[in-house]
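Intended use. Records like the one below are meant for learning the mapping from a protein sequence to its folded structure. Do not use them to infer anything beyond what is encoded.
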Amino acid sequence: MPDKETVVVTGAASGIGEACALRFARDGYCVVLADVNAAGGARIADELRDEKLDAHFRQVDLSSEENVSAFAAAVIAEHGAPHALVNAGGILQNAVRVLDMEIAEFDRLFQINVRGTLLASRAFGAAMCEAGRGSIINLCSLTTFRSSAQVAYTVGKSGLRGLTESMAAEWGPRGVRVNAVAPGYTLTQAMQARIDSGQRDPDAVIERSALRRFVKPSEVADAISFLCSNDAAAITGVTLPIDCGWLVTTAYQAYASQPQ
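Structure written out for the chain above:
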């Protein structure tokens, strides 16, 4: 048996997944980083090992059931049932009208963001249920709670909330907790690229956030670390917004009556 607990992080080559890998590794866990981006994932694993931390990278394509199953089997054979699985793997979408969206784009987003999360959760969740313990974290979004012109992305992230709740109810009696986080506008590499290309307006984000700033990837990782810890032992089936107050501020500012 392994001499330390293992955390598996998909989408670990960048953004929130990268921040989670860094946080768990520096907290003393054995971290298995997974991503389709082999160069990025291997680089981060190498950097962690340079810090004398326990990190391993495996290339995984979340759109492939066979690939995900083989990945999970290999990790479980080497490390046992993981302490936690963070489903951070996914892809983004730019704004598009429903009538203009290519169905192939919808299918691709659903295949990776929703089906890929389900595949990884089933593969590792089975081992967790057998072991009688474990924590799974899914990545939802503000679009889980609000409509968005990112049509396919919104449908998928809304669906992940339902998947989170179903798995939490089903696997809770077997000792496995399942929660989700719903990050707001988070200043990841992907978000910065969209700001630089003019596809996101940073001023609009800041003006509509109670804390008047973007979320940091490390702050999402902090919340995920808490949800996976014994301090959150009674928490399962929740979707936690981490949004610098964007949800409350947009509702407050849109209300028909404003204080003078």
